[in-house]
Amino acid sequence: MNRTRVLAIASKEWREIVRDRLFFALAFVVPAALMLLFGFGLSLDVEHLPLAVVDHDRTPMSREYVHRFIDSRYFDFKGYADDENQLDRHIVDNQLRAVLVIGPHFERNLMAGRPAQVQTLVDGTFPFRAQTVKGYVAAINAAFNVETLTQAISQIRGVPQAQVREQLPLIGIEVRFLYNQSMKSIWSIAPKLLMVIMMISPPFLTALGIVREKESGSIFNIYSSTASRGEFLAGKLLPYVAISTLNILVLWVLAIFMFGTPFKGDPLFFLLSAVLYVTCTTGIGLLVSVAVKTQVAAMIGTTILTVVPAVLYSGVLIPVSSLSSVARVIAHLLPGMYFADIAMGSFLKGLGLATYWPQVLALALYACILFTAGYLLFHKRVDA
């Protein structure tokens, strides 16, 4: 392979990228813009949910129970209502996400040792959020039950509540959150956004860059040149790998300094893994460019092969272990899942090559297969 010819082709490709303002924006502006848009707009934190209360008891104990929800950061108290039927319209209009309904005789039943009825109406249009709200309500209710039980035993025995707490055979649970102690969803989202954006951007650029020359006819100059197809492919793809590597660095800086995501791993290992990953995704663009002849077809083909797999089969929304057996097989056939593991481990767990060498090996194998297939399918010919 002649290095001079490779660099000449790469230089020509770079000039084409810089000359086309729209293509230049796609290469350098869009990845960072996507990171900012998704980073600020996508959150899995379930907090400050609009809550209304219907208190049919209106006793000091029922008000104390309500204040457990009001004082929580998970709910945003909107006020009381006389009847839950009055609130149906507000739930339909998304002004409320939950309604707490306290039944009559709430205090009297608790003080008598009988169960008290409380109903929580939760907007179930988003099942994940609804299940999370159910967990919040259960936790607040459990804490209130313990304190109510303590108060009741204290009154019956005539001893201080502190002494009752010491004697109660309660199960003490200490929950420690590892790797994401602040429980911020953006800390988990940002590393995966790197994977998603770099699964989409390099194939788009590569496929459009090569197919654009097919449409304009300038690729025939390459067909008639002395450059081998290996030299042509290397020179053609080198700028896109370089651009994608630069974008990875920009996204890495945004994740750390814009969104506050901690990075605990080895920067060099992460960067080299990222270069290997964008080499894989650039190879996907190469295969698309070989198979199609128009830029519209290139965009459609690239979208099908990158956007859907990056979102559904790489652990972004659903952990890979929770996917169906068929979906897990698909996930293991795509490079996104392997780099998502590396990105999450590098950012939040401080892990490196000793742990993720299987993922690195899978990416290397994936890159070899893609570029071998692209080399074999690409022919320097003039189609009639």
Report on this model:
By secondary structure, this protein is mainly alpha-helical. It has two domains: 3-42 and 184-377, no CATH class; 49-167, abc type-2 transporter like fold, CATH 3.40.1710. It is built from 16 helices and four strands. Strands 2-1-3-4 form a four-stranded mixed β-sheet, with helices on one face.
Shape: elongated
Evaluate the radius of gyration. 29 Å
Helix and strand sequence: HHHEHEHEHEHHHHHHHHHH
* Tally of DSSP helical segments: 16
Uncertain runs with pLDDT below 50, 5 residues or more? Answer: none
Output the structural class. Answer: mainly alpha
Q: What's the mean pLDDT score?
A: 83
Helix content: 55-70%
Main sheet: strand order: 2-1-3-4
Question: How far is it from the N-terminal to the C-terminal residue, by CA?
Answer: 29 Å
Count the beta strands. 4
What share of residues are in beta strands? 5-15%
Total separate domains: 2
Q: Biggest β-sheet, characterized?
A: 4 strands, mixed
